[in-house]
Write a structure and sequence with these properties.
The chain is of the alpha/beta class. It contains seven helices and eleven strands.
């Protein structure tokens, strides 16, 4: 069993990855494609704990994460609210007038509906904020942008066109730390 690791959903540079680095700096963050996989990593003893977002101040419950946490059989060891600031990032050289679509996790897109509508940008759902940034970077298509934490732009070599894309200045997400009884 790998000791000293915390499971999260997403790619490096996601909000969950950032939260792991800040809240559990002594643990190795281990990313998983889905919330279920991150939770299963704890149940199966592959990681000591999992950090999962369950609620957002703008959109409410984060699904399916909240239902998976409730059904997990794991203990909530701690919880914390973290500020969420979304940036619009694009391939190098792209301008706002080039962008047609913006990719991100459905929860992140839901936190920016007004801003995206004002800019006339079409939302495209992705499994993760940082995963969307990675996909946009790999495609190199200047008509595609991503909504993700600013750190994802650096990781994936993207340029930030706009910071604070979220509709609410007080945008926050509640994360829960899950573990087995013995954790």
């Amino acid at each position: 069993m790998a000791r000293g690791c915390v499971a999260y959903q997403g790619a490096p540079g996601s909000f969950s990855h950032e939260a792991c680095a800040v809240l559990r700096p002594w643990d190795e963050p281990v990313g998983h494609e889905t919330f279920a996989q991150a939770i299963d990593a704890v149940r199966q003893g592959e990681c000591d704990c999992a950090l999962i977002p369950v609620e957002n101040s703008r959109i409410g419950t984060v699904q399916p994460a909240s239902d998976l946490v409730a059904a997990s059989g794991l203990k909530v060891l701690a919880e914390v609210w973290r500020p969420i600031r979304l940036a619009l990032m694009v391939p190098e050289g792209a301008r706002l007038s080039d962008i047609r679509t913006v990719e991100s996790h459905p929860a992140a897109l839901g936190q920016c509906t007004g801003t995206l509508a004002d800019l006339g940008l079409k939302s495209v759902e992705a499994y993760d904020t940082a995963g969307a940034a990675r996909a946009v970077a790999e495609a190199g298509d200047t008509s595609r942008g991503a909504l993700a934490p600013t750190g994802a732009a650096e990781i994936y070599g993207l340029s930030i066109l706009r910071n604070d894309m979220q509709d609410s200045a007080d945008n926050r997400t509640r994360f829960v730390l899950l573990g087995r009884e013995s954790a």
